[in-house]
Amino acid sequence: MSAGDHIYCCVNGRTAVCSIDEITSEFINTAIVEWVEASSELPVFVTIASGLPKGDKLELIFQKGTELGAAAFLPFQASRSIVKWDAKKADKKVERLRKIVKEAAEQSHRSEIPEVHAPASFKQLLSMSGEYDVCLVAYEEEAKQGEKSNFAKALTMMKPGQKLLIVFGPEGGLAEEEITVLREHNFVPCSLGPRILRTETAPLYALSAASYHFELMG
Q1: What are phi and psi of 74, to 5 degrees?
Q2: Domain range 45-217, its CATH number among 3.40.1280.10, 2.60.40.1930, 3.10.450.50, 3.90.550.10
Q3: Which of 133, 126, 125 is nearest to 161 (CA)?
Q4: Where are the domains of the chain?
Q5: Which residues contact 65 (CB under 8 A, 6 or more apart)?
Q6: Residue 208 confidence (pLDDT)
Q7: What phi, psi does 15 have (nearest 5°)?
Q8: What pTM was computed for the model?
Q9: Largest CA-CA distance found in the chain, in angstroms, rounded
Q10: Strand 163-168 with 120-121, pairing
Q11: The pLDDT of residue 146
Q12: Average pLDDT, the chain
């Protein structure tokens, strides 16, 4: 970068095109050229709650989920999660995930950086559900039984500014006991089409469907 270059600056959810006036070792002095009126954010706030998966799948979900418009990510310990995050490593892992999300937000010209929650227990996930207007859980058994409408109905009922929480299981999915408890806490089980999706694919499918519904159907 050098003086005279144009950059995007984001503040309080708004984006402006700015011209660089001066660069020092401590700061960059810019002047606003124009405000960008078009929003790069989904009109609803979608939180992706992922049962801890193996390997680097969580990094993929967070990176691509940010590009697709997720507002927040909530990893949680599901009963079938093979991965166990100990307290010593959790802070470093969350720090890395936040770095990945920040870089993905910059790359996709997001005006907001999605929130990355610390790993939660299943019980903590349930307690946080009260903060949301709509709570869904992706459940492969619903797909096997031919359920097609719950996800579409939820998107249709939502209004701009509302909050949606979608829960996804790890490899092997969520246990029946977990689904039962989620139902008791007003989560609606839904399928994401007739095919069984991988744990890293399902959240991206859901976000893509939400983007199509809210941003492209117009």
Answers
A1: -135, 95
A2: 3.40.1280.10
A3: 133
A4: 5-36, 45-217
A5: 48, 73, 114, 203, 204, 207
A6: 98
A7: -120, 140
A8: 0.86
A9: 62
A10: unpaired
A11: 65
A12: 91
Three-class HEC string of the chain = CCCCCEEEEEECCEEEEEEEEEECCCCEEEEEEEEECCCCCCCCEEEEEEECCCCCHHHHHHHHHHHCCCCEEEEEECCCCCCCCCHHHHHHHHHHHHHHHHHHHHHCCCCCCCEECCCEEHHHHHHHHHHCCEEEEECHHHHHCCCCCHHHHHHHHCCCCCEEEEEECCCCCCCHHHHHHHHHCCCEEECCCCCCCCCCCHHHHHHHHHHHHHHHCC
For residue 64, the one-letter residue type is: K
Task: Look up residue 45 and give its two tokens.
Answer: 């706030």
Tokens encoding 25: 């070792």
Residue 213 is which amino acid?
Answer: H
